[in-house]
Amino acid sequence: MEEFTKFVRGGILGPIKKWGTKWSLWPVHLVTACCGAELAHAFACGYDGERIGALNYGIARQTNLIIVEGAITRKMARVLRITWEQMPDPKFVIVMGACGLNGGIFWNGYNLVKPSEVVPVEFFIPGCPPTPEALLRGIRQLQIKLDKGVAENSLTFSEIALEKGKKPKVLPVSPKVVSNAPSIVVAVKKAVDWEFGKQLCDRLKAIGRAVITAKNRIALKVEVENLRSAAMKLKDLGFDHVKSVNVIDVPNEGKFIVEFLISSYSVKELMPVLVNLYTEISRKEPKISSLSDIFPSADYLEREMQDFFGVNFVGNPWKGKFILAPDTPEFPLRKDFKLEAESYVGD
Amino acid sequence: MIDEILATLMNVFRSNSMQIPLIQPIVDYLMQIPLINILVALILWRPFFAVVIMPGLAVLLLYLLYIVWFERKLTARIQWRVGPLEVARPIRGAIQALADGLRYFFQEAIVHRDAHRPYFVQLPILAFIPILLPIAFIPAGNAVGIKTPYAIQLIVAFLALIPITIIAIGWASNNRFAFVGSVREALMYVAYEIPFIIAVISMIYLYGSGDPYVAVEKQSLVPGAILNPIAFLVFLITMLMATSRLPFEIPEADQEIAFGPFVEYSGMLFGLVMVLAYEKLYIMTLLFVILFLGGWNGFYFEPLGDLNAPLCLFIKTVVVISIIAIVRSMYARYRIDQTLRYSFSWLIAFSMVALGIGVVLGWIL
Asked: Are residues B130 and B38 in the same domain?
């Protein structure tokens, strides 16, 4: 932040403050991704960042520089801000890597935040990941900035005149493509040599339409209103837990497919068996009864699906965000979800 | 009236002043200037010289600058790095600690909302009292602050006060890491203090007195380290424990509990608490040199006169501390239970053996 630079350079004691701060930039490193390995290299025997007075320190209270390494998610943004506010003034931030710059490989992700929106950043170090030389160059640039009072690019590029008639380069479009007619088939029948499965299928026929999809895998389709009774019957058969709850978004047909993958820990012959109990619900009014009272392990999985798709599991007491940060835009895994597009203002 | 007071003071200072032939011409010249002469006489007054100049505060500051740099440089060399360098290339970055200190000095000192404000701010300064008081009793040849035959006992007693201030610092911080650190400090305090005191008592028995002059005089032929090697070892290990250096850096383990009692300190206050352990190390090493390494016995150069003894003591101390600094980069950290078990079994047993040796040798000598 400019006022910190001004403070460090100003006053009668300015030269002393400047000298002390310049040669004692102790970074607290906020590692969220692979750039941490490069930072470790920059401070190990190969490059030795301690030469220029930078000593890695784990505790925010006693340092004056944050090096943000990697992508900052919505939840991590809070941590970054807390770390920044814990540090005593004057303090500086250097952001390392493409993810912190503009998203990098996570560009256009719903859960990504730019560090520059959370804390005032002094320098960005581009690269994926940047080399240790680049990181040390970033710290050197901060020292030079404290020395001169102005920030300068450490590299200057020669200008190239635009050729006439050639289109300027545009940003890449989002890789998220919505197909008009995706073929989503949950139950594909497959002939397998599995005697027990055939017996099980006969028993399950009373509940819904049972199909063997592979060895030890059975898909069982039920109507929405029969879901609870089907789950009760499965419980009576010896199935005792839900391994996973999935939602598949099919926007062109206006429906969600909700899958409960049910298996057993208590009955020996049912242990390898995985029953995919699935049903279809309307996309406009996504309501389905919860199975968390029958299979307690479904509870957290249902909450997660509530976060991602906005499917309302009636009977699950949880309301609001569970895994995602509170300020995440609604239902990010729906196929028609669109991020607020970035707009570039100026020539 | 003022003239009389000044004349009396001059008499007091001149009657007990350091005789250093090397700088005698300069002193003689400065003595002719009014008002400056009383300052010079004060500085050369033996009690003042011992407490404030050498082996007291002035060289303590020099030592702090040196040891922080030396430790970082040594650790760097052991890890195949260069260490602090670019801050002052011609002197191999020797003023790195000064840069860090200045940065701390001009940083914001945060006093957080949950802290007990008066204690949180006062205690780092209060902690200096038990650090500085022993300096008044540590003699170096003719330069001595307060001369007493119970000097060694007094130094040990004041050293025992330091952990109490550290525990109080942790309490005033009101932080979970600080709390864990304080409890560890308290456990360590009990663990090292008993063998440490027994080792010192064994040496007092051996020399037959708690007077450093007697101790140093009796070591004129054979140093105490050879007279009672087990007490020497026990003192060395308890010194590492008392100053929380690796392998016993348990109260301040920064990878586990984020600097323990000092986690909430920032700015100048952290600068004050960070040097506590180094200062304690300095005092304990002075005592160590007096008890085991012959104190100020050593070289004697005619031009230095009275300065010989303090200089010799200081050089010995710094050499011992520099050797101890190697330990930091060579050993991993013990767990608290390992340290306590070791301390309450082996260390106390060794100190008892040392006490036996001390009593027997004291009786023979």
From this structure: no
Q: Cβ of B106 and A17 within 8 Å?
A: yes
* CA separation for the pair A267, B120 (Å, rounded): 62
B192 in the same domain as B207: yes
Of A50, A62, A89, which is closest to B76 when you measure between CB atoms? Answer: A50
Please report whether residue A162 resides in a domain: no
Considering CB atoms only, which of A19, A45, A89 is closest to B81?
A45
Q: Are residues A137 and A222 in the same domain?
A: no
Asked if the Cβ–Cβ distance from B102 to A45 is below 8 Å, we say no
Number of domains composing chain A: 2
Q: Does A23 touch chain B (CB under 8 A)?
A: yes
Residue-wise pLDDT tens digits, A257-302? 999 999 999 988 889 999 999 999 998 888 898 888 899 998 899 9
Residue numbers of the domain that contains A113: 2-148
Which residue in chain A is spatially nearest to B102 when comparing CA positions?
A20
B85 and B73 Cβ atoms separated by less than 8 Å: no
Length of chain B counted residue by residue: 365
pLDDT tens per residue across span B134-179: 888 888 878 787 888 888 999 999 988 888 888 888 888 888 888 8
Q: Which long-range contacts (CB under 8 A, 24 or more apart) does B40-44 make?
A: B41/B9, B41/B10, B41/B13, B41/B14, B41/B17, B42/B9, B42/B13, B44/B13, B44/B17, B44/B18, B44/B20
Per residue in A193-225, pLDDT (tens digit) is: 888 888 888 888 888 888 888 888 989 889 888
Please indicate, yes or no, whether residues B25 and B164 belong to a single structural domain of this protein: no
**Residue A57, domain CATH:** 3.40.50.12280
The per-residue pLDDT for A342 is 66
Total of domains in chain B = 2
State whether A110 and A213 are in the same domain.
no
Give the residue ranges of chain B where pLDDT is below 50.
Answer: none
